[in-house]
Amino acid sequence: MTDSESTGPATGPTARPSSGRRALEPGIQRDFSQTMSYGGYLRLDLLLAAQQPLSDPPQHDEMLFIIQHQTSELWLKLLVHELRSARDLVAADDLSPALKRMARVKHIQRVLTDQWSVLATLTPSEYAEIRPFLASSSGFQSAQYREVEFLLGNKDRDMVQVFKHDPDAQSALSALLAEPSLYDEFLRYLHRHGYAVPAEMVERDWSVPHSLSPEVVDVFAGVYADPAQHWIVYETCEELVDMEDNFQQWRFRHLQVVQRTIGGRVGTGGSSGVSFLRRALDITFFPELFEVRSRIGA
Ligand code: HEM
Question: Which of 58, 153, 194, 291 is deepest in the core (most CB within 10 A)?
Fold first, then answer.
């Protein structure tokens, strides 16, 4: 047993305090009448006033429901910020910092996926008490979720129509619809750097989702056949695959939580519910990066 593990009275420089109270150091700021405080910087007055349960009589679990959605929206905001930047860096031929952005994106995605376990504590009976107060609102109407999808390449003009009631969201989404996605910019990067990406992949109507190109599969087959020769491109391919993998895991956990909460019932947004969500699992952002895998080692 070392000294620090000893159960006897503590002595010396690593001694533990004998009382439970920690005295405030003299240098610690206590007066924020003239200087920036924590709550002031973070606008906690706004943030913490935004949880406004509607249930009447009040339902204990509505706070969980609201905070789970609001925290998801905050993380989605950061995802949009990082993905936009990653895309713009790829467009500027700056792959190394773009990879740094993608690494952060992957961590955010993991937080978003892990946090489903908190909402999974909501039982069907508890949700049923809240559901009438949600009316027709649904995560399906999350503008930031669509922005993330558009940035990754799952473009859908019909989704823009859902935001007629919110002109700011609608114009942000319309703008992203018309711009290249992160993957489009990666294909353009490859084209600029001498890879045989077809010309119609680098100038096209960006509002239409990218569809599988056999020529692009050939390009990636060459990269995966000799990773050392194409290291930064190879690394970017794998970062993209990780991001899609993480996105699918979020979709799947959402599906599972929905299934255990509402079973086969329709959604508040009007869809068939679980079966509608299950169809999203077939959507791929980067088809060639998955197709190329059947060629490796063949
Ligand atoms: C118990 C909680 C939840 C239930 C029962 C639920 C249910 C559903 C259902 C049934 C849909 C399909 C559209 C509809 O008819 O409403 C949907 C879509 C969606 N929900 Fe949830 N949801 C829950 C929590 C969440 C949370 C916490 C988020 C986080 C932002 C979220 C985000 C989304 C998104 C982004 C979609 C669109 C998915 C797509 O288009 O494939 N949901 N949800």
Answer: 153
Phi, then psi, of 289 in degrees rounded to 5: -70, -20
pTM for this one? 0.94
Dump the DSSP string for 82-124.
HHHHHHHHHHTT-HHHHHHHHHHHHHHHHHHHHTHHHHTTS-H
3-state helix, strand, coil in the chain (%, to 5): 60, 0, 40
In this structure, what token pair is assigned to residue 202?
A: 């680098």
Please write the tens of the pLDDT for every residue from 52-67.
Answer: 999 999 999 999 999 9
Q: Which residue has the tokens 């919110």?
A: 166
What does the chain come to in residues?
A: 298
Domain ranges of the chain: 60-135, 138-179, 181-235+286-298
Closest by alpha carbon to 188, among 89, 274, 264, 261?
89
Q: Can you tell me the distance from the alpha carbon of 164 to that of 229, in angstroms, rounded to the nearest whole number?
A: 49
Mutate to test the pocket of ligand 1, among 254, 261, 268, 285 (most ligand atoms within 8 A of CB): 254
Q: What is the pLDDT of residues 35-88, one digit of tens each?
A: 999 999 999 999 999 999 999 999 999 999 999 999 999 999 999 999 999 999
* Pocket (CB within 6 angstroms of ligand 1): 68-69, 72, 119, 122, 127, 138-140, 142, 145, 254, 257-258, 261-262, 267-271, 273, 276-277, 280
Query: Could you give the CA distance from residue 49 to residue 278 in angstroms, rounded to a whole number?
Result: 35
Looking at the chain, the whole-number percentage of residues with pLDDT higher than 70 is: 94
Rounded to whole angstroms, how far apart are CA atoms 72 and 157?
Answer: 24
CA distances from residue 22 to 17, 19, 131, 244 in whole angstroms, order as listed: 8, 8, 46, 47
* Backbone region of residue 35 per phi and psi (left: phi > 0; alpha: psi in -120 to 50; beta: other values): beta
